[in-house]
Amino acid sequence: MLEQITPLILTYNEENNINRTLEKLKWASKIIVIDSYSTDTTLEILSQYPQLEVFSRKFDSFASQCNYGLSKIISEWVLSLDADYILTDDLIREITSLPIESDINSYSVRFKYCVFGKPLRGTLLPPRKVLYKREKAIYQDDGHAHRVVVQGKSSQLSAYIHHDDRKPLSRWLWAQDRYMVIESKKLLETPDYELSIGDRLRKGKILAPFVIFIYCLFLKGAILDGWRGWYYTFQRVLAEILLSIYIIETERIDKSSPS
Q: What is the pTM of this model?
């Protein structure tokens, strides 16, 4: 199965992460990277891996970048990864054992969030379709994130991917600021009946940060992970606070604007 797969990775200033991701992809004969004109040492690191093909494209949206990447792949299967996704050995073995001939067109994988390299017991990250047939897939933007739509049957693998982002806190804050502007716009422009219960709670502004605190720390077991669990919980609470602030700001601007 592995010889039928091309990994696809998006990069922008990922010098703190990309090497660990690529070390787990040495089995791949070709890897496609779409880089958004990195200004750190990302491109230098990428040049050390001969099986990589790097294409530079100005970033407009995650979906557009991914769809552009799909156009550069000729293999039947695609393994779509963020630059801070680390394949576990168990997942590599599981993918290796998948049947080549199957009516399954995509596979979802669960995640374990890592803090400074150590996986936590729980995470808010949902399973994601990361392995799929190229000709059956297209990406769509979804708020600040993106999702792949794959025709046909899907299945979920049992092993995990580690989400191990080691970029500095300043970069995380920069990214969250951008993400929450887009996310607040999506929540405010979507009718309540089309939102999930969680998104309705987030749109309400006040309760969401408190709910996330309790959910992460106790229901997801972050309190059992010591200081790393508290670190992750504080990250998620801060992200929700930023979202609430942007929603309040946007609502006040809209109310003060002349009709």
A: 0.92
